[in-house]
Amino acid sequence: MSSLPVAAASLLILSGCATPRETRASMGLISPDQKPAFLDLKDRLQSTKGAADTTNKAEVRLVENQHNEATTRGFTVVQDEPERIRGGSRGPTPTDYFTAAVGFCENVVFVRNAALLDLSIDSLDTSVAGTWDMKGLFGIDGVQSAFTTITVESRVTTKDPVEKVVEVAISTWV
User: Fold this and answer.
1) Residue among 45, 31, 53 at smallest CA distance from 111
2) I need a surface site. Which of 12, 24, 50, 164 has the fewest CB within 10 A?
């Protein structure tokens, strides 16, 4: 992938927000033990001198043709290419995993901030779409294989006031 700039867009869609006078009944999809765990992690990171680097590692093994298996933290995931390009269609492509990873990160950080700011979530769904020119796979016409756009759309349902959701969204995207 190239280091060309990528246009990114985020959109937040709300439903079921309460008026300021309404109260929330529960934390919805976020369990009460999340906030203390996040506060503990935050405290530990703040007390750490210098960087708090961490490393993510995956061991990837070619199974056959374009079919791979990766092991990370004890989990095994498979990857393959579509049949139309002679893959076996036994799993998502690397770019499928990339867009899913962006969505996973969006939801994880949103939940973390929602727990810290006491926002209840009844549902959180994120859609990620990335566009890239397949000519870049072979350098045809000088095209790079980088994403040219990535769009992230999150849909939140809550009984809390819209202002609380906006507060969480801002803390998530800063």
Assistant:
1) 31
2) 50
The residue extents of the domains of the chain are 7-40+59-173
CATH architecture of 7-40+59-173: 2-Layer Sandwich (3.30)
pTM of the complete model: 0.81
The predicted-structure confidence for 18-47, as pLDDT tens digits, reads as follows 544 444 444 489 999 999 999 999 999 999
CA dist., res. 171 & res. 109, Å (int): 9
The tens digit of pLDDT for each residue in 119-132 reads: 999 999 999 999 99
Kind plus residue range of the DSSP H or E element containing 170: helix 162-173
Round to whole Å and give the CA distance between 79 and 61. 10
